Target: DUF5946 family protein
Amino acid sequence: MADERITGQCDCGAPAGPLGVCADYYHAILAEEQADPRMYRWHAPVVCAYLLQHPSEAHERHLDNQFRLLQLYLDRGLDALLRVAAHQVARNNHRARTGYDLTPLAAYAPLPAGGPPRRFRAAFSGLPFGGGSFVSGGYEAYGNGVEAIAGATVEAWRSVPA
Ligand SMILES: [Zn+2]
Model:
């Protein structure tokens, strides 16, 4: 408990990387993906995983939906997630008051009470960042890194004591 506020450690329990804590990585990702449509494909899992690892920065009422979206991503892949996300956007545009369509997400487990987890086995501050870019090792490697963080996020939340 006493070690939580050590300088260089993030709220999620991860040690800082060369860019700083996870928030520094997250903002650098959001900036880079804006100019890179291929990298932007992972936007939804990046946002969901970041907020679920740092829930003090999130809107609590969205976390359950974000937890289910990450499960769908891990279960069915990025293309399936993008289809659901596009469907939700279209639906929101059509009928602004209906909010998210939870139908495709209903099969997935709700966010456990009793979180947030104290540790995750993969963190944003551990993502490789070389030559000023997150995708210098290729898009597949970047996608694998995002997927590892998503998997760690779901696993840690699933194991919080009820
Ligand atoms: Zn963190």
Remarks:
- The mean pLDDT is 89.
- The helical segments are 22-34, 37-40, 43-53, 60-76, 78-94, 139-158.
- The CA atoms of residues 73 and 127 lie 19 Å apart.
- The chain has six helices and no strands.
